[in-house]
């Protein structure tokens, strides 16, 4: 018997079928160990020793693996073929070695890029050792992320209340979003005019030519800057005669793009399918792990976390054969296409994302896939197939025209193109689906009529249109990923989680698929750029990524990289201890002036208090974040939230309730947005039988449209049957937030987006983790999320998560956290304040502390006095 360890239960089930009765395949459900979210998990002074923790659910899985090994001959580690997968195998092996579960059993590491019978069996025939440099690169990355998060985040809490965390990659990604917003704010629009002529050939065929020269001067897009100049040129053209100077036709070739990498797949899925990065990876994971096709579970695509753009030689041959069968011999190029990556610091070489069988077309799989799976598979199949097809042959025509009027002349140009041979474009049902960059102006897509040199043209109409330059667009998830990849920041496995972290921290909000930085996010970046500039520099972060890649290649020692980073970083952290909050505010007032002090319509000084007329407005830091206040406080109580504009729009959305959002496509009932005593909600129908759903956290009334309302009203949704019980697992939104439900077990989800996107594998994992923790009632005090300093009267202060939400605990006193407070960001001072207030209201204190407190100095007074005590241990949530 051989024990095989993979990552997911779906993969385990499929692979067990391939390997047969001589193998037992078990799932680790991802990582089995992680660094505890507390100080001391990485010890720079102890040669970067790392303390790993196994949670309850992972303990059970490791126990199952240990039991299975008792009667086995060997252990085969078959986790994913990337840095994270290598690390999971290393973690499993480390734990089993410490448990002395291996004894004389052989240990092998196998990797396969696709879950097909051939790939799995080939991998089993070619085992190897665990790749130590790859594990070292993982350890270095994990240690760096921990050291940055657990040292930089506490500085934010002390100097910038309301900020939740900072991270090595997270903060740089946020800087990109905030920098773009600053560009937009500084942008000054400029007027320009475009002039064109609708002309006709002697045969009566019409086309359009645009102005490119006037009176011997070449014109650019911005040359004509006002209506008077445009009118003068237009008048000249109205009375002009037009003659063709030259007609030039040039044959060109258009080559296909390489198959998808992780980032290009996320970009394409975002622009074409509307998927965010997380949704793309969830659907791709299912296609990779396997779909039941006619009674057989088959992995449909290769591994989806990759920087590689090349396909295996046998896959290329299979693609070429499929192309010849489907499209014909002419569509197969003479030589196979070989691609190389252009991404900076490309990770370990893996295959591009491709179908595991090119003969399985999207049409063939329609009946086996759900809508999202089919759309993503269609995208992958077409891109991979097209990548090995012949170039498209295009004839591009350029016509130069002279307009003459009484000694004045103007030059016009008409361009167009004709596809002489479609080549790889035949793989796409829509020629614009392939995601290629345009080869020229939009006019190039037009086909010109027959135009001959020297012939006269008739004027039909002269067009002059006013335009204004526009600011650069905000990033979408797709364009931000493209920029991060271009700069060498992050890796395929990190993009989705990085973007999710920015949303979860309320640093950015997504509106119409564009990333808009929240005021909290802009404050964090302004602070970091002023006081930790080096650590949000694009070049510095990319250089660190390159070093991590060199570690994985065996070229650098991972602890040497950590030492070099830590010496300077730790010194910089120490320097901020003497940083005064007034210095921070002065810097932020200047850096964020357009946000904090927006221009007034009357042109008056935006920094003068509108209430007292004499005080200066400035950023102020409160317990729950930053706001704008008057320097004459307490005589003047003027305050303003930074997000006042957003609050106003939300109020406006509710002012005209109920707001009509459309009709339900199935029942024809009206769907409306309303507000009630418990806040805004959407409703379908009228009366007592109407279906209602409250808006989840993070969804504002002004962001609700017909699509979002339908999604909320469709809850709960069925995810699929549990593989063990056969009972349905559903996802929904309840009193305590988003959840999954199996039988009578509820398990919380991180965000409302998870309710709509979570797949069966992850749902099973979340349910299993909740079951392992035990039921909410009767299981005693919940485990501490975070341990703070001891109370001045003795006894530990902890942060815990209970049935009714997170709270701080001291002895028998439980004080609920404010609704918008991140439990991992609670400081000792804040906890003492909450405990003191709760103790005063309840008139009690813990028995454990009573002996240490005299009647002359009540616990409440000591706790209040402890506000000035500096916390000795700062803690942070990992990036």
Care to describe what's here?
- This protein has 879 residues and is α+β, with helices and mostly antiparallel strands.
- Helix content is 36%, strand content 22%.
- The protein has 26 helices and 32 strands.
- The radius of gyration is 32 Å and the shape is globular.
- The model is unreliable at 344-348, 430-444, 644-656, 776-780 and 845-879 (pLDDT under 50).
Which terms summarize this structure?
879 residues, alpha+beta, 4-stranded parallel sheet, 22% strand, disordered C terminus
What are the SSEs and their pairings?
Elements (H helix, E strand, L loop, with lengths): L1 E5 L2 H11 L3 E5 L14 E2 L5 E2 L5 H14 L4 E4 L5 H16 L7 E4 L7 H8 L7 H28 L10 H17 L4 E10 L5 E9 L2 E2 L8 H12 L2 E14 L7 H12 L3 H13 L1 E3 L2 E3 L14 H15 L34 H4 L5 H16 L5 E14 L2 E14 L34 E13 L8 H11 L7 H10 L3 E4 L2 E4 L1 H13 L6 H15 L5 H18 L5 H11 L1 H4 L20 E6 L2 E6 L8 E3 L2 H12 L3 E5 L6 E7 L2 E6 L6 E4 L11 H8 L3 E5 L6 E7 L2 E6 L2 E4 L3 H6 L2 H14 L10 E7 L5 E7 L2 E6 L2 E4 L11 H15 L4 H4 L8 H7 L14
Parallel strand pairs: 1-2, 1-5, 5-6
Antiparallel strand pairs: 3-4, 7-8, 7-15, 8-9, 8-14, 10-13, 10-15, 11-12, 13-14, 16-17, 18-19, 19-20, 21-22, 22-23, 23-24, 25-26, 26-27, 27-28, 29-30, 30-31, 31-32
Helix pairs in contact: 2-23, 3-5, 5-16, 5-17, 6-15, 8-12, 8-13, 9-12, 15-18, 24-26
């Amino acid at each position: 018997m051989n024990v095989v360890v993979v990552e997911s239960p779906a993969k385990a089930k499929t692979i067990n079928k391939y390997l047969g009765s001589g193998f037992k395949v078990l799932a680790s459900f991802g990582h089995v160990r992680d660094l505890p979210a507390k100080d001391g998990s990485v010890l720079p002074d102890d040669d970067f020793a790392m303390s790993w923790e196994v949670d309850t659910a992972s303990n059970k899985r490791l126990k199952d693996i240990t039991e299975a090994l008792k009667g086995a001959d060997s252990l085969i580690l078959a986790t994913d073929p990337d840095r994270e997968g290598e690390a999971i195998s290393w973690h499993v092996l480390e734990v089993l070695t410490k448990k002395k579960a291996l004894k004389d059993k052989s240990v092998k590491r196998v990797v396969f890029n696709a879950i097909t019978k051939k790939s799995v069996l080939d991998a089993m025939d070619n085992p190897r050792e665990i790749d130590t440099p790859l594990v070292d690169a993982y350890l270095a990355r994990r240690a760096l992320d921990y050291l940055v998060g657990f040292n930089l985040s506490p500085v934010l809490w002390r100097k910038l209340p309301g900020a939740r965390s900072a991270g090595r990659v997270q903060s740089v990604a946020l800087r990109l979003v905030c920098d773009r917003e600053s560009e937009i704010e500084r942008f000054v629009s400029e007027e320009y005019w475009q002039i064109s002529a609708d002309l006709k050939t002697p045969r009566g065929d019409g086309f359009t030519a645009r102005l490119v020269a006037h009176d011997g001067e070449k014109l650019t897009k911005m040359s004509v800057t006002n209506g008077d100049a445009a009118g003068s040129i237009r008048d000249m053209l109205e009375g002009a005669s037009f003659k063709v100077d030259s007609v030039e036709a040039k044959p060109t070739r258009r080559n296909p793009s390489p198959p998808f990498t992780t980032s290009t797949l996320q970009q394409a899925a975002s622009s074409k399918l509307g998927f965010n990065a997380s949704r793309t990876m969830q659907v791709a994971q299912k296609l990779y792990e396997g779909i039941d096709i006619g009674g057989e579970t088959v992995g449909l695509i290769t591994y989806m976390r990759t920087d590689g753009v090349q396909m295996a030689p046998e896959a290329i041959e299979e693609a070429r054969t499929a192309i010849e069968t489907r499209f014909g011999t002419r569509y197969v190029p003479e030589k196979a296409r070989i691609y190389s990556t252009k991404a900076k610091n490309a990770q370990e070489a893996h295959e591009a994302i491709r179908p595991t069988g090119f003969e399985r077309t999207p049409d063939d799989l329609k009946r086996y896939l759900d809508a999202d799976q089919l759309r993503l598979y269609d995208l992958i199949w077409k891109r991979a197939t097209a990548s090995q097809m012949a170039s498209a042959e295009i004839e591009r025509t350029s016509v130069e025209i002279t307009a003459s009027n009484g000694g004045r002349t103007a030059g016009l140009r008409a361009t167009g193109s004709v596809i002489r041979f479609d080549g790889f474009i035949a793989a796409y049902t829509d020629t614009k689906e392939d995601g290629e960059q345009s080869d020229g102006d939009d006019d190039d897509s037009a086909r010109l009529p027959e135009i001959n040199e020297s012939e006269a043209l008739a004027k039909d109409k002269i067009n002059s249109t006013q335009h204004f330059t526009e600011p650069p667009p905000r990033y979408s998830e797709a364009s931000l990923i493209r920029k991060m990849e271009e700069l060498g920041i992050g890796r395929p496995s990190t993009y989705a989680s990085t973007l999710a972290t920015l949303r979860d921290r309320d640093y950015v909000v997504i509106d119409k698929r564009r990333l808009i930085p929240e005021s909290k996010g802009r404050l964090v970046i302004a602070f970091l750029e002023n006081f930790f500039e080096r650590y949000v520099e694009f070049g510095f972060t990319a250089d660190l990524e390159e070093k991590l890649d060199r570690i994985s290649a065996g070229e650098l020692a991972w602890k040497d990289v950590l030492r070099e980073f830590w010496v300077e970083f730790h010194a910089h952290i120490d320097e901020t201890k003497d940083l005064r909050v007034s210095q921070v505010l002065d810097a932020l007032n200047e850096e964020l002036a357009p946000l904090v002090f927006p221009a007034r319509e009357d042109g008056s000084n935006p920094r003068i208090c509108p209430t007292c007329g004499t005080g200066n407005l400035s950023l102020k830091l409160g317990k729950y974040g930053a706001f704008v206040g008057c320097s004459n406080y307490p005589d003047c109580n003027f305050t303003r939230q930074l997000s006042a504009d957003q609050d106003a729009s939300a109020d406006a959305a509710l002012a005209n309730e109920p707001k009509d959002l459309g009709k339900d496509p199935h029942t024809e009932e009206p769907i409306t947005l309303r507000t009630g005593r418990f806040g805004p909600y959407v409703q379908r129908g009228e009366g007592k039988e109407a279906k209602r759903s409250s808006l989840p956290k993070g969804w504002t009334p002004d962001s609700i449209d017909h699509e979002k309302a339908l999604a909320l009203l469709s809850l709960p949704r069925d995810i699929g049957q549990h593989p063990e019980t056969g009972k349905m697992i559903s996802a929904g939104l309840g009193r305590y937030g988003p959840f999954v439900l199996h039988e009578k077990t509820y398990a919380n989800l991180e965000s409302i987006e998870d309710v709509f996107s979570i797949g069966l594998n992850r749902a099973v994992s979340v349910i299993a983790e909740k079951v392992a923790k035990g039921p909410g009632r009767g299981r005693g005090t919940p485990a501490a999320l975070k341990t703070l300093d001891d109370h001045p009267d003795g006894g530990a202060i902890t942060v815990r998560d209970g049935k009714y939400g997170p709270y701080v605990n001291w002895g028998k006193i439980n004080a609920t956290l404010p609704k918008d407070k991140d439990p991992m960001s609670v400081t000792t001072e804040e906890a003492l304040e909450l405990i003191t207030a709760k103790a005063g209201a309840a008139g009690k204190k813990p028995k454990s502390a009573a002996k240490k407190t005299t009647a002359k100095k009540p616990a409440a007074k000591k706790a209040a006095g402890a506000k000035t005590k500096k916390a000795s241990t700062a803690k942070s949530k990992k990036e």
